[in-house]
Amino acid sequence: MTSDQPEHARTGSEITRTGSGPAPTGTDVVLEARGVTKHFPLRRTARDLFARERRSVHAVDDVSLRLRRGTVTALVGESGSGKSTVARLLAQLYPLTSGEIRLGGEPVVAGRGRSFRRYARRVQLIFQDPFASLNPVHTVRYHLTRALKIHGRAGSGEKELEENLAALLNRVQLTPPQQFLDKFPHELSGGQRQRVAIARALGADPQVLLADEPVSMLDVSIRLGVLNLLRDLKERLHLAILYITHDIASARYFADTTLVMYAGRIVEGGDSERVTQHPAHPYTQLLIASAPDPDRIVADEEQEESGTGEPPSLITPPAGCRFHPRCPQAMERCRTELPPRFELPEGQWAACWLYDGAAANGTDPVADRTAVKEATR
Ligand code: SF4
């Protein structure tokens, strides 16, 4: 390997950035979803025999997003909103019902075998449960060696392999590496197991990490350490990270951009600080009002104002805006017309009829609405 090769082409022992490559701009799109839709057909029952159409779960509908080099994008939503399905679609674990995924600007459909491995070399998925994602009968050494070998990064001999294994463990701050290499998953803490899972993903030398609720099964005390590790990887390796979470507070802390998903659709997006401090969509407001915050004692009344109720069935999702059965601000048109994406100041956007025509009047409708709410409290 030569020093002028891109970092993602090097072996594990060489992955410390030397500064010789071009500095990332933070704007280059690595992975993109365009209008991605996934419907899972249901098994036919006797009741369906005479039905014209086969019923299906509308898990993801018309999702578009871009993951940029050196940035974290959070995809936030409650359980069943379809965010994990988006991660699996981006990882090409499921075929799309419609839409397109582009890697480095090129449309991709990873099949099986070699073409899937080529794709996985650039896009890696980290699962929520590190214990389930590691084989309990194999050691850390086995998991990491296998990843390096599959992706052709094991090196040319024993010595190089050992160096690459040590580099991976150093990269995820499991040091000294010799202390962890021959341990089994059950001998590690939850946080250490998730670090091994991250090291295994790094064994492919990816450009994109899809982290599906990477800290939700960890003790609260060690979540921050794993998030800080992911942030360190973003900065040092310039990875594009999709951070899937139901915890909007952690998105503010960790992500550059936040997208909010409800019932299979993305309903709001923008800079994380802006989305979490000035949420535009009533569903985002509900998520924030529901998040535990020691600085803010939420009165029942405020919770009511933000909305209540359960997520809808995705087999027969509500017509119009899918949030309308729960939305305290729903209007007549919300029940029949699907709101498009309305652009708001500072790069924020929301798919909500409340902002129809907002761009035309030149004010900040989100700040205005917040101010009215504060004044009338
Ligand atoms: Fe509520 Fe209507 Fe906006 Fe949907 S479009 S969030 S129902 S106001």
From TrEMBL:
One of its GO terms (molecular function) is ATP binding. Keywords: ATP-binding, Nucleotide-binding, Transport. Pfam families: ABC_tran (PF00005), oligo_HPY (PF08352). The keyword Transcription regulation does not apply. The keyword Transport applies. Residues 1-27, 300-320 are annotated as: Disordered. It comes from the Bacteria. Residues 44-288 form the ABC transporter domain. Residues 1-11 have a biased composition (Basic and acidic residues). Signal peptide: none annotated. CDD domains: ABC_NikE_OppD_transporters. GO terms for biological process: peptide transport; transmembrane transport. PANTHER family: ABC TRANSPORTER, ATP-BINDING PROTEIN, TRANSPORT ATP-BINDING PROTEIN. Belongs to the ABC transporter superfamily. This is Oligopeptide/dipeptide ABC transporter. It comes from Streptomyces filamentosus NRRL 15998.
